[in-house]
Amino acid sequence: IIRETGLQPFLKADKEIILRYQRKHAVEQALLMALENESLEVYYQPVVDMQTERVISMEALVRLRDEKLGFIPPDEFVSIAEKNGSVVMLDEQVFEKVCRFLREQILNNHGLGIKDVHVNISVIFFMQNDMSKKILDIMERYGIPAEYITLEVTERAAATAPEMMEKHMETLAAEGISFALDDYGTGNSNCSYLINYPFDKVKFDKTMVWSYFTSKTGKIILDNEVNTIHELHIPIIAEGVETKEQMERLKRLKVEYIQGYYYAKPMPQKEFLEFVREKNQLHERNEETE
Ligand code: C2E
Ligand code: MG
Ligand code: MG
Ligand code: MG
Q: Best mutation site among 38, 43, 78, 117 for ligand 1, i.e. most ligand atoms within 8 A of its Cβ?
């Protein structure tokens, strides 16, 4: 009957839709359960200063592992969390875990050479009236000086909720918290936002970094962006750097900071600490013998 009525292609499409829906539903359940149990994990990826070649900063990246589904990438569950609103809880829980790590393992260890930690904040969290208060309360609870915190936002926040964004940025910046414009070069962020909002750093998205090495247009675009941003006296972090050659090219362009698999992937706390100790202290030893 199906073949006769020509319904088969539609049924096939339906099957895909159902599978996609089931996956989405399962991921959503896994996420809500992790939020309920406060079992989301936070990994840390080092950011290296090109002048000293030391780990100067780190980005906190959320990780969700489910018994049945295994490891679920944040690009998949963060957008679900933004749609159902649970991203507010997610960002809060991540931020609290970051502050605890910072207090117990970094600040109580004389900083290990680390100047700040970058934490991603969703536009949805920015749209909450009490967002800045929640951030400041958590920092106070763990005794975190504001200079150790950089919040990463995309221009989507400014485009979606300009008033809230301005209000929270003003409050938090007045306390000494820094801001980085994330996803720069993806169409999600551009230069006009650097002029209108007080961003302290810009993060080049990995897609823009990779285009630099694969296309002529990509090269022209990145060269131009570096010039413009440096004219505004804003330092750049290039993300997605995977090879020595890429690192050296960007260093020659005077990109200040590099983050990428070339140095390290995002790691659990313990491995991250080992990596930093090794990289930052190795250097101290070299300097002593020089
Ligand atoms: P993002 O903030 O732009 O983070 C950078 C992403 O690039 C991370 O992916 C990181 O693992 C990846 N990356 C860094 N260097 C390299 C490299 O050399 N090669 C490759 N292939 N990838 C590299 P991840 O951890 O999967 O996170 C994806 C996105 O999920 C983040 O993009 C961010 O938008 C979002 N996200 C992660 N954690 C949080 C969070 O706590 N809250 C919110 N709201 N969003 C988060
Ligand atoms: Mg980020
Ligand atoms: Mg980024
Ligand atoms: Mg991104």
A: 78
